[in-house]
Write a structure and sequence with these properties.
The protein is an alpha+beta fold. A hairpin with an 8-residue loop joins strand 3 and strand 4. The protein is built from 7 helices and 11 strands. The chain has 2 domains: 4-59, Alpha-Beta Plaits (2-Layer Sandwich), CATH 3.30.70.3550; 63-215, 3-Layer(aba) Sandwich (Aminopeptidase), CATH 3.40.630.
Length: 239
């Protein structure tokens, strides 16, 4: 059994999370900005479907990507040099999260990014914690991703692609931005073959939590990211 949390309640220790399903920690609480930020700072995230209570997770191991370890294939390297694509930050957050919610995914029949989740993350965006990275082809949004930035940690949530490599383009530019901003780690949450192919790897939860604790109070305060990035250059790929 997992505990039921009232709104605003403290989370139980992540060491009490179930092994099967991996990382299920608690149910209930709410999706207020304070509750969500408290969760992320403790290595916890919400993940549930329509009709379910809010479920909170902290899996072990944890899938992470260190920005400098992003794997860029030869084909993606060529695409990154394609002047037909441009990348922007925080100019279309609502459109990105809506696209993540509605883009079909192989092996999935629904989405966990239900309207309540979209509203909660839009509030975090307004507060300067949630960010989007957008791949544009002309004036058409063709791919992107969104997540939460706290201190020097980026907690990735979801990505979408409506053109070949469009989400990978966004991820490459995110890594470039995070390296420039001295972020230490990207939380990818659950292990997948797709993430592994891009350089992400699982680490023990205790190690993940130690890295988060060392990074969440570092870096810039919350706020809107510059649309063109820190240095305004998005044609280079991460080293």
């Amino acid at each position: 059994m997992i505990p039921w949390l009232e709104p605003g309640a403290a989370f139980p220790p992540v060491s009490t999370a179930l092994r099967e399903p991996n990382g299920l920690l608690a149910a209930g609480a709410d999706l207020s900005p304070q509750q969500l930020l408290n969760a992320y700072r403790r290595g916890i995230f919400p993940w549930f479907s329509r009709g379910e209570p809010i479920l909170w997770w902290s899996p072990d191991p944890r899938m992470v990507l260190f920005p400098a370890e992003l794997k860029i294939s030869r084909s993606l390297g060529k695409t990154l040099k394609n002047a037909a694509y441009t990348v922007k930050l925080d100019t279309a957050f609502a459109r990105v999260i809506a696209a993540c919610a509605t883009t079909p995914r192989q092996g999935q029949t629904g989405t966990w990014i239900i309207p309540e989740m979209q509203f909660a993350y839009l509030r975090l965006h307004e507060l300067g914690f949630a960010h989007s990275v957008e791949t544009w082809h002309g004036d058409k949004l063709v791919g992107g991703l969104y997540g939460i930035a706290i201190g020097g940690v980026f907690f990735g949530e979801s990505m979408f692609s409506h053109a070949t490599d469009a989400s990978k383009i966004a991820l490459a530019h995110l890594c470039n931005h995070l390296i420039s901003s001295k972020f230490g780690i990207i939380d990818c949450q659950m292990e997948t073959n797709h993430l592994a192919s891009l350089g992400a790897r699982p680490i023990p939860r205790d190690e993940f939590l130690a890295r988060v604790a060392a990074c969440v109070d570092a870096g810039d305060p919350p706020g809107r990211w510059p649309a063109e990035g820190i240095d305004g250059v998005f044609r280079k790929s991460p080293a």
